[in-house]
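SEQUENCE-TO-STRUCTURE ENTRY
===========================

Backbone structure tokens: a row of integers, each naming the local backbone shape at its residue.

Task: work out the structure tokens from the sequence, keeping to the layout shown below.
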Amino acid sequence: MDKFTLYQACFEHNPTPKLLLNLDCFCIIEANTSAAYLFQHETEELCGMEFDALNSNPSDSLLERLQHTLATGQTFFTFSLENRENEILQIEAYPAVLGKTNILSIVFIDATQRRSDEAKLAAIMRETDIGIVMARAEDGIIIECNPAMAQMLERKRSEIIGQSQAIMHPCPSGSDGRTADFAQHCVSNTDAPVQRKIITPHGKLIDVEIKAQRFKLDDQEIMLGFFQDITQRLELEAQLRQRYKMEAVGVMAAGIAHNFNNSLGIIMNSIEMARISRADPARLEQLLNNARTGGLRIRDLVQQILTYTRNGRHATEPVQLGIVLDETTNLLRATIPNSVHIITDIDVTDTELMVLADGSRIQEALFSLCNNAVKAMDEKGSLRISTGREHLSEAQCNPAFGCTPGYHARVRVEDSGGGIPDEIIDKIFDPFYSSRSQAKNLGMGLSTVLGIVKQHRGCIRVESSPGKGSCFDLFFPLIQNDDQEMPGAEDIRMPRGSGKILFVDDEEILVDMGVMMLEELGYEATGMTDSTEAVRLFKANPEHFDLVITDQTMPNITGLELIGKLRRIRPGIPTIVCTGYSSKIDQTNAADLGVQAFILKPLDLPALAEKVRAALQDFRR
């Protein structure tokens, strides 16, 4: 077989439809059998026909489309064609001049299915409320995004496409322009969702859940990311957690009342005995110390409860895990039944057990875990709480939590309950799931624990056997702690000073006690129980006072409002706020509100002495 015969056979029997046209008149000079089938003509009928005669739509000129494609240098043009089944096909035509001849070859491809799929994909991209982004894996350059993603980022699509994916994230990018998360997704084999934040051009942070997949498109590695705004979900979860915490406090109320009564008994009995023991100074001092100890126990219990029940999002900071757990177990002892024996193995001096965390949320996790264990034991048995460190391998880490291999701090809670059956152990972290039959025990307990561990990029390990109790291990990533100082013994020295202080509180007894304490420290104090009258007194002689100490929660005018009024009279007057509880001010935001210091009630004389001295020294510099 000669070459011409071979070429002719390849042309005629090629499964891809092909036509050869004369460029001078755009008439068909050759057609293969596939083209004849596509255009519903015999091969002999096609030869000699004008190319424009192939069009089944008289209002649309195929010749004009062909000429436009050749003139503009485009690769292909498209047209519609009705087949034998009266279906409309979407055809792509790829013209090419054969060398230096006047012969034009056209290859036709049925793109109906592909274009239908593309149209469906475009509709999904356009209509879904989930943000979708496509970016090149090698450099993170965005090649496509849908309207929902643009709306989420508060940008136009044209402002996003062509930019690095790093513009969406508040975290810094690497030398290759990609963020660490993006680079990790490119090499990871998992498509587990992760929670992150994205950022708008105005600095607004949005909580999102991201699920990413890698695939090939035109021989190029592409990352496809799905972004779901979970801001509202997190707010609802926070509300649900707060409701659960308040319900938990209600459950613990009996234990709290028991310990309050014990401490009040210490105070009242010590005072009664002190009244009849004035002749014995040593005994009198011991009784007064007992009364103070009872008061401090109540103060600490109140603060621990307030810390546990506070709402809102809180920043993470380096936390010495042993100290947080020691404080938490002290509150647990005060709230769970005495029939549960708590055993602890916690080293509060271990400064290497440092984690980047929100201490109150770790406390919340331990409360939830221990309350669940107490219920599992029917409020009778032993509960062991311990800490340690453990190296987790990649196989032990859950990538959905953002957990990475390395050394972790371990919090272990073991109970002597009935254990968890194998068939339900995978469901125990589901919200409102319980292995117990009583509906009243359903809640968010273990689901809350899971959420907190996930927030801190840790992981959970559960070991349990029916009849042998359960062991829960919570893991949190360790941080370096080269410069952490060990807490020293309490300094009970009380610095004395001089100056005139205005002390304001709506409780007359507290005012009297505050004035007495300040005078004991060497200051000249004026007490007021009416904040409005305090403003009038201050206004009469603004330069008379060196410092103002005020309660926050008072009728008519709050402490912060009082400070505002006084500073309009005399800008720069030093101030200290003392309160048992306030949602407006605490130790972390006192300075931001223009307050020199913040003191928790009940007032502690050494702490008051130090705060007053520091405030006056700063003012006098």
